[in-house]
């Protein structure tokens, strides 16, 4: 079985992550297709990345970086990021991604918690370190379009790389050794560091082939930022596992540029968060563009996909958007799979089925599996999930134990869901986002999806607010499409629309029009902020 072969390949002694992701591939194969906001374009082959990362590994080694040490990387999408992580992994060290939108407080916590004593950044982000005591760690700084001064004590990225002696032999690691510590978004409490072992590469490869059906002749573009799990696991590491070409576009997202990239680079395999698709939908598709695109696969992850968005894509691009589900802690696990041998009929509102190598279950409050049709806690049956790799939160045994029940048989995702007789999984919401109204348990996503079906709605966020009579009532925060204006009559019409199309007990009794919704940097709606 393919899954068992991958486990044997990535869960053993004598491995090199840099070899697995770079050195073993065709040195002439294009790896990175890079473009930035200034219009600068560069292409790097796997052979070029191997040479550059061997030299930069020499820089890191000279500064004392060795196997098992954490190195924090505060870099935007681009060649410096790829060279840095490959160099880190070449030494058997651990990559700690820092999203470039982070401020000093977020950076300081992650650096401190991980114990990183080296930070790689660029001139544009260097000032974020000014309020942090950098005397206890080393800073390596790359140039950027932001013409800013950097401390003379910093090690210059490219200059030091050119002068360094390349590391010829990679440090060997085992499948259970860490190669990434990535922090959850921290919408409640401190962010938690997720330990990612080398053997997780088997699961990452599974998603790239089963979920995305990435093929050798594909041009792949995952819009997600590699400072977060989906962009790191599947926008950068994933395509390198397969030796594929992939795009990194380092610029602020815009509809016009997105369509240009899809057309100009001939993108065939595209992945993004629902927010991206909703933005494209709101702006509309330029006339005649459909015939000029080569997109074969559209995928969505990060939060549930509204069914009407997929319908819109099928109308305008000729193909639907497939919804996929995963977490920082385990990667992608439930998908509407694109692989021809796994592809099945897409059911409206379903995230799909468990990916080969995983078994999903729905549990009651006692940790007992529920039958089809009943809502409960979405869990992964670790006993029957050979690709499951999450082993714990870094330096937080208490939070780790909260995730497992029945002697670690089941991993709790923290989400509520149900499944049908065909093992299709339906997302209800985060456990703490469920609305309890007049004895009914209401998942906000279902109401949000219903609102998205109205011609005036661009986005919506739904929460429960206190009500003396019902305990809670449904309140919706609505972002309107261009050309529509907020009014009491429109609010009433939206309530009637949901009541008529969804259910008489789930419609929003309160509607507030807003210009935008609060979201995490990875694009997820922060409902706790809406509730407050």
UniProtKB/TrEMBL annotation:
It comes from Alkalicoccus saliphilus. The keyword Kinase does not apply. Belongs to the ATP-dependent AMP-binding enzyme family. One of its GO terms (molecular function) is fatty-acyl-CoA synthase activity. Keywords: ATP-binding, Ligase, Nucleotide-binding. SUPFAM superfamilies: Acetyl-CoA synthetase-like. Pfam families: AMP-binding (PF00501), AMP-binding_C (PF13193). InterPro entries: AMP-bd_C (IPR025110), AMP-bd_C_sf (IPR045851), AMP-binding_CS (IPR020845), AMP-dep_synth/lig_dom (IPR000873), ANL_N_sf (IPR042099), Mitochondrial_ACSM (IPR051087). Residues 446-524 form the AMP-binding enzyme C-terminal domain. This is AMP-dependent synthetase.
